[in-house]
Amino acid sequence: MSILMYKQRFKPPNFNKTPKCNYAHIRYIATRPGASKNEGMSHGLFGKLQPGNLTEFETWQEVAKEVRELSYKKVNIFRSVISLTPETAAELGLKDHNAWENYIEKHINTLASKNGISRKNLSWVCAHHNEPSHPHIHVVFWDKNQKTMKNFVSPKVADSIRIQLIKETFAEKIADYCRAKEKQKFEMKEVTDDLVKDFDDYMKTIYPKEYKKLKEVAGKIDDEELKDIPIDSVLKGIDLSPISIRLFQLKDILPKKGRLYYQLLPEDAKERVDRLVEDLKQGIPHIKQLIDEYADTKSKIAMLYDADPENVERHKGKAIKEMDKLIANRLIVVIKTLVNKEFELSKLEYSKEYKSYKTQQIICEILVMIEQNVDDLNTDYIDRQKAESTELSKRAKKELYLRNRDKGMGK
Predict the structure, then answer these.
(1) What's the distance, CA 26 to chain centroid?
(2) Which pLDDT does position 239 carry in this prediction?
(3) Would you say 5 and 215 are in contact if contact means Cβ atoms under 8 Å apart?
(4) Could you list the mean pLDDT of each consecutive 10-residue stretch along the chain, which spans 411 residues?
(5) Are 252 and 278 in contact (CB under 8 A)?
(6) Which helix (DSSP H) or strand (DSSP E) does residue 138 occupy?
(7) Measured between alpha carbons, how far apart are the two ends of the chain, in Å?
(8) Residue 109 CB partners (closer than 8 Å, separation 6+)
(9) SS3 75
(10) I need a labelling partner for 319 at 20 to 30 A (CA). Which of 18, 52, 121, 342 fits?
(11) Pick from 80, 68, 90: nearest CA to 126
């Protein structure tokens, strides 16, 4: 079955938000639910930043930071997706992480050459998403020595890549198709774009339902690619009504005048805010995942200066409390806005739909805030790690030496 979709986009290099959006996109494809993870890692990012062997990157942050820095230099960062039906993926043997690595390594130069990128200047990273309805691979690639910024790439480029991928991926099937059609003196070098189109149209008539379904589900990938936070996928299957009800109940008990900060709240209001923050973390896994990542990175930074492993959990706990407080204050800021609006509109009766909308908006703001803090902290950690000439800072090494000396191990 030859059903293959290819899409390609890039954020305008001259937009102010493009560097941060490209950073967020790397994180998204590497860590989102459904991403096939590298063995022993919490992410699935792999690729080649320079010619040589394929690399399963130790951290996605190292790649995201490089992409962000290149974005500040106006380098085009191309985002692409190759999507297949489950049947096609199975037929091609694309059943696991390694198989997808081999597949994209074999075909990556097609994406590059069609976009005018030479092999020696090509950098690329990927993540395979094992979606049951449309297994697909996200490919991010760029010209590391690009001289001229591109503001537009013709849609014909993506069409050309799709045709070439079909040629390369289904060479034997195209040959069988030609023989069945009694094409004379067929040789693979004679495969033309028109022949591939003829073959693809033929396969669509054989598998119309599969093709239609793939086209529908692959069409949604654009939204996932271009949104910094795919809120629909984050909240999929989660009932927000209990959170929505409690959010608006909280609005009614908070002070209507004066400054609203977590530390200044009455104790009963503070306890209710704490419970709501905790329920947000437990009810929305993506929030908890980001906070855990923040806490892990925070403890890693602390351990650059503190060699005592017993303090790791203390540093993590402190980081979680710090993030809880940030979420609480963000909630209060949004609630303050609701209070002001209610006052202006003379006790407006909020509809269920409006409450649901505002709840999603609040969650989205919280996610944006947390993700930005996580990104900034990850960058800080990488910078500090590189600044250290050894694995431990001088202070940490001194602490380790003194502790071992007290145990009779120091020399």
Answers:
(1) 5
(2) 79
(3) yes
(4) 80 88 88 86 93 92 91 95 90 92 96 95 95 88 93 90 89 74 53 70 73 65 48 68 81 72 82 88 85 88 80 89 89 74 49 72 77 75 66 55 52 42
(5) no
(6) strand 136-143
(7) 68
(8) 119, 122
(9) coil
(10) 18
(11) 80
Task: Kindly tell me the burial class for residue 217, based on how many C-beta atoms sit within 10 Å of its own C-beta (0-12, 13-18, 19 or more).
Answer: middle
In three-state secondary structure terms, 294 is helix
Rounded CA-CA distance 261/331 in Å is 10
342: left (phi over 0), alpha (psi -120 to 50) or beta: alpha
307 burial level (CB within 10 Å; 0-12, 13-18, 19+): buried
* Of 317, 293, 313, 320, the residue nearest 381 (C-alpha): 293
Q: Is the separation of the CB atoms in 399 and 306 below 8 Å?
A: yes
Question: Reduced to 3 states, what is the DSSP secondary structure of residue 134?
Answer: coil
Q: Report the alpha-carbon distance of residue 231 to residue 219 in Å, rounded.
A: 17
User: By the 8 A CB rule, do 377 and 300 touch?
Assistant: no
What is residue 66's predicted lDDT score, i.e. its pLDDT? 93
Between CA 255 and CA 274 the distance in angstroms is 17
CB 295 within 8 A of CB 323: yes
CA 298 – CA 275 distance, rounded (Å): 24
**Residues 6 or more apart whose Cβ sits within 8 Å of residue 157:** 8, 114, 115
Distance (Å, rounded) from C-alpha 293 to C-alpha 333?
A: 24
Residue appearing with tokens 């909280």: 250
Tokens of 242: 């209990």
Helix spans in 3-146 (H): 18-31, 60-72, 86-91, 97-114
Minimal CA–CA distance to 374: which of 25, 62, 27? 27
